[in-house]
Amino acid sequence: MNNNHQINIRVRYAETDQMGVVYHGNYAQYLELGRVEWLRNLGVSYRSMEESGIMLPVISLQMSYKKSAKYDDLLTIKTRLKKTPSVKIEFDYEIWNEKEELLLEGNTVLAFINMETNRPTRCPDYILEQL
User: Fold this and answer.
1) How many CB atoms neighbour CB 45 within 10 A?
2) H or E element at residue 59
3) Contact by Cβ (8 Å): 37, 85
4) Which UniProt keywords are present, listed alphabetically (predicted)?
């Protein structure tokens, strides 16, 4: 199963507080970047999913902060699919800095929702085929 992907991002000034430390709420956006790029690496975009009538809202978000990221740090976001998706898809994350220090561990669970009925639905076959 193709379940790991990583991307690098640089911390922007707007993501930090007056001390140059990343505001804690921005880490959720970093995790979103990780999973969006994980899907894109499979050849699937959020846009194409939504155009096919499927949305993917977050139903659970957990983060454990280890160290602070700072302005201009180059971060590595590691995204791992936890198990084969069904009606839900679950990811584990790690965010590391250039010094190879673990900054954050996270987990998200998202549900596949049929946009017409607003009800849960199974993971689309085109995602399962790529796995």
Assistant:
1) 12
2) strand 58-65
3) no
4) Hydrolase
Catalytic annotation, pick one of 17, 73, 92, 125:
17
Q: Tell me the residue type at 90.
A: E
- Our answer to whether residue 17 is catalytic in this structure is yes
CATH number at residue 89: 3.10.129.10
| Distance, CA of 127 to CA of 11 (rounded, Å) | 31
Cβ-based neighbour number of residue 26 at 10 Å = 14
Q: Which of 34, 22, 54 has the alpha carbon at shortest distance from 126?
A: 54
Segment 22-70, tens digit of pLDDT: 999 999 999 999 999 999 998 999 999 999 999 999 999 999 999 999 9
pLDDT of residue 130: 86
Give pTM, 2 decimals: 0.92
What total of structural domains would you count in the chain? 1
Q: Is the pLDDT of residue 131 over 90?
A: no
- Kindly state the greatest CA–CA separation across the chain: 47
